[in-house]
């Protein structure tokens, strides 16, 4: 087992990464409380992994209550959040209760927000079971739900007390979900560590094949990169924005296609290809490095060809991005592979980029 630390002063927490951690009752003993443990999960993950987690908690004398939610982004809503609160209240959960979020990013975001607001805040532990949640969403403390008028619009910064990553849960993940997680892995290399990007390029086939030691490496590296960024800028007033590389174009594709058509990671893969083109247009990235990044994304079975729309459709979906401030979009571009920066860009240049990328 490897242990990393997210350094946030009195809100610091460990990330444990290893195989079969769900069965490690000793590891879970540190979370034993005088109150109950609540496993928040969904109907897909519960039959796969909840029994093992429950056994490890019970081995430490904990009373365990399960709250099982329907599966899907479309359930990341106020109504589902309310069912978590109902479950907690019906079992008389008190301030010492702990929530264990067992599932992908949807479960982690919702259970985290429930923990942030139930009795003004109870402890929670992230147990991410998708690659995307292991390399991205479980670290950093962004929690929340969707509103019919916008994704992730209601939420809170609320850090877990620990993240427990059992790599073997990835073995049941569908191929498309694995690839979607790899998009965020590539992003970490592209914005922060060109040697890591080299490594991904050399080990792409093994990653596509669920090789656990390769997956361990990308989870460890990604958690290191993300937690270093979060430790510097927890609430995204500066460098944390670099984590949005590929996301402005990606969100436009995701929303424009209708949610669920493209997975988030697929849209980010394609968004990174366009953002790399923008970096070329700005005179930063060489054509050769852009093409190399696109090849890496493709090798991981992610799309790089954007849907073709009117210019106005792209620009309008992009300006709806939450990261736009007073209408002005800040783009994340690459100065070189492994080095990102924030930049305001004239619409003209964005339009010529979309043209070269074949999106309009
Ligand atoms: P998800 O939670 O919907 O999981 C994808 C699918 O895989 C679901 O059907 C799920 O039930 C299933 N699943 C989960 N673990 C499994 C396993 N081990 N084996 C088989 N199936 C499994 O999607 P996701 O990609 O994990 O997360 C996406 C969500 O994360 C979005 O809501 C997004 O907004 C959020 N997110 C949050 C942050 C953050 O910083 N908080 C960052 C990125 C994404
Ligand atoms: Mg993302």
UniProtKB/TrEMBL annotation:
Alphabetical GO CC annotations of the entry are: cytoplasm
What InterPro entries is this protein classified in? Dehydroquinate_synthase, DHQ_synth_AroB, DHQ_synth_fam, DHQS/DOIS_N, DHQS_C
Q: Where in the cell is it found?
A: Cytoplasm
User: One GO molecular function term?
Assistant: metal ion binding
Coiled-coil stretches are: none
Q: Which residues bind NAD(+)?
A: 71-76, 105-109, 129-130, 142, 151, 169-172
What does the note under cofactor report? Binds 1 divalent metal cation per subunit. Can use either Co(2+) or Zn(2+).
| 3-dehydroquinate synthase N-terminal domain segment(s) | 67-179
Q: In which pathway does it act?
A: Metabolic intermediate biosynthesis; chorismate biosynthesis; chorismate from D-erythrose 4-phosphate and phosphoenolpyruvate: step 2/7
Binding residues for Zn(2+): 184, 247, 264
Q: What family does the entry list?
A: Belongs to the sugar phosphate cyclases superfamily. Dehydroquinate synthase family.
Stated name of the protein:
3-dehydroquinate synthase
Q: Which gene encodes it?
A: aroB
